[in-house]
Design a protein that fits this description.
This protein has four domains: 2-165, Sandwich (Immunoglobulin-like); 169-268, Neutral Protease, domain 2, CATH 1.10.390; 293-453, Neutral Protease Domain 2 (Neutral Protease, domain 2, Orthogonal Bundle); 460-524, no CATH class. 30% of the residues lie in helices and 29% in strands. The chain has 16 helices and 27 strands. The strands form seven sheets. Strands 4-7-2-1-11-14-13 form a seven-stranded mixed β-sheet. Helix 5 (294-311) packs antiparallel against helix 6, helix 6 packs across helix 9 (367-382) and helix 9 (367-382) packs parallel to helix 13. It is globular.
């Protein structure tokens, strides 16, 4: 068994001391692979940038030479049989839901950040011993015996989190024989009963639709921060959520946002943690794991995470539509669908998926994916089925049996639930094709008694010229507008005359006086969702 010992001599330095003991039963090269990414963020994070003081010794304390084969792969030659000890330090100085952080109050680790997978020896399990200045409050490694924790393989290691802290708030609730924990580090400015009741209702609703929960215990690990922050990461046995500022959770809208990300991450316990494409089953942390199914992983989860707030009765229909309207507005102001399908956009998360990319280069797999999932659900609802029923079948066929799906095998489940010709047309238009999903929603939302309306205001710069600005800086230009031919993102609008002439200051120092040609088109509408008379389909959709 590979034995890890993790300690922290100096909290203020934020460096962890990590020792890994490796039993070698036959001579050869030993390869130590530090992950370049983590599950839930399909983009290279390159954790090797946090490593220093790497060394290898044999059990007699002799120094063993090593070399790096690439940026995250260390190699040494094990000529003798026996135990080798690898030592290094890891800088835990990034506070978000998928990283690691050390300070005088806590030691918080996602083990995928700092632990290396051992190749070149027999496939052993992993043992962990932690010598930390704070008490371990929660560790999601799957087995524990005394002060030792165990994982049968590195996939389990990479899926685990540890939180040791001076202080912690621990709440819990149960659903039949299932136990759900809430570990809260930070100030609490909301009611315990209301929060737990909401989580319990959501969990009950999801479990009802899937038929079962994949684990016996689940952990919500919440880092409530004194500054603005919002992030969540899924794990098989729990989730880590960072949210701030903690004091804002006094307000209902902020508390609902926190409950919403809890719902999103809980849904991942099925979708992603177990219902997963072949391309990432198992995860290969040594390189990019390309998949065209990101819209299923994150788009469906974004849609269903919000929908279960409604299905569980945590929010009203009006509150749900307010959240949905924000997603629709966001998607309407981006034109990535003209240049990249949702499949190609999923693949390209490895290129620029988590930061501002070139304008209108691709779709957002979360927001655009969520609206595509809504569109599919509307089609299914009109024929007496639902996306939740599709996901239950995906759970039984793929997730429960630890089988990966392909895009086509997942879509075949959808096709069996509705008219195959219509579904194939939808797939060609909105999955492999480059079409806006908004016209489909406008046409089909009335199925559930909801109307989507476009409203154009009297903002001449926005609605007539096709320019979105913030504090006079141009942030977006509609590609069908005349302004798109002559203005640049980043230009500053210095003045606007009554006859429509603009004075523009450009970042290169130049000044331009421009008159925008009038167009019969209107740009950048505001979208509004209206509740009409209830329909039987709405009742089915919300149930």
């Amino acid at each position: 068994m590979f034995q890890y010992q993790i300690s922290c001599k100096n909290l203020a330095s934020q460096y962890l001391q990590i020792h890994l003991q490796i039993p070698v039963t036959f001579p050869g090269k030993v390869k130590l692979q530090l992950p370049i990414w983590r599950a839930g963020r399909y983009f290279p994070s390159n954790y090797a940038q946090n490593i220093r003081n790497f060394s290898v010794r044999f059990e007699d304390q002799s120094i063993i030479p090593f070399y790096k084969k690439d940026k995250s792969l260390w190699v040494f030659e094990a000529e003798k049989l026996g135990k080798y000890e690898v030592s290094y330090e890891f800088f835990a100085g990034n506070m978000d839901a998928g990283s690691a952080w050390v300070d005088e109050q806590q030691v918080y680790l996602n083990l995928v950040n700092c632990c290396m997978e051992v190749f070149g020896t027999r496939p052993f399990g992993y043992q962990f011993k932690f010598k930390l200045p704070h008490r371990i409050r929660v560790c999601t490694l799957p087995e524990k015996n005394g002060d030792l924790y165990y994982a049968s393989n590195f996939q389990e290691v990479a899926d685990s989190t540890l939180l040791a802290s001076k202080e912690i708030t621990h709440w819990k609730f149960s659903i039949e024989n299932l136990l759900f924990h809430c570990w809260i580090h930070g100030e609490i400015h909301f009611d315990q009963k209301n929060f737990l009741d909401s989580l319990k209702k959501i969990a009950i609703s999801m479990i009802r639709d899937f038929g079962e929960f994949p684990e016996k215990e689940y952990h919500f690990i919440l880092e409530l921060l004194p500054y603005e922050h919002y992030h969540g990461v899924e794990h098989r046995r729990g989730t880590v959520i960072t949210y701030g500022a903690a004091e804002t959770l006094k307000q209902k809208n902020h508390l609902l946002q926190l409950i919403g990300v809890c719902s999103h991450e809980l849904y991942h316990a099925w979708n992603v943690c177990r219902i997963r494409p072949k391309a990432i089953l198992p995860y290969d942390f040594s390189k990019e794991n390309y998949t065209i199914d990101g819209w299923i992983l994150e788009g469906i989860t974004s849609y269903m995470g919000d929908l279960y707030l409604l299905k569980a009765g945590v929010i009203s229909l009006a509150e749900y539509l307010e959240k949905l309207q924000k997603t629709i507005q966001r998607v309407s102001e981006d034109f990535g669908w003209r240049n990249s399908s949702i499949l190609d956009s999923s693949f390209d998360t490895w290129v620029d998926g988590y930061h501002q990319s070139a304008p209108d280069r691709k779709q957002n797999i979360y927001a655009n994916g969520a609206l595509i999932a809504l569109a599919i659900d509307l089609k299914l609802t009109s024929q007496g089925s639902s996306l939740s029923e599709i996901m239950k079948k995906a759970w039984i066929r793929f997730g429960k049996n630890n089988r990966g799906y392909s895009s086509h095998s997942f879509w075949r489940i959808v096709a069996k639930e509705t008219q195959i010709l219509e579904v194939e047309g939808f797939y060609n238009q909105y999955i492999t094709g480059k079409n806006s999903i908004l016209p489909f929603l406008m046409e089909n939302l009335p199925i559930i008694g909801i109307e989507l309306k476009e409203n154009f205001g009297n903002d001449s710069i926005r609605n007539e010229m096709g320019i979105l600005q913030k504090e006079s800086i141009i942030k977006k230009i509609h590609p069908d507008s005349f302004a798109y031919q002559i203005l640049m993102i980043g230009d500053k609008i210095s003045s606007l005359s009554k006859d429509g002439a603009l004075e523009i200051s450009r970042i290169n120092g130049s000044t331009h006086h421009i008159r925008i040609k009038k167009s019969n088109l209107r740009f950048f509408p505001d979208y509004q969702l209206l509740i009409e008379d209830p329909t039987p389909e709405r009742e089915h959709w919300m149930s």
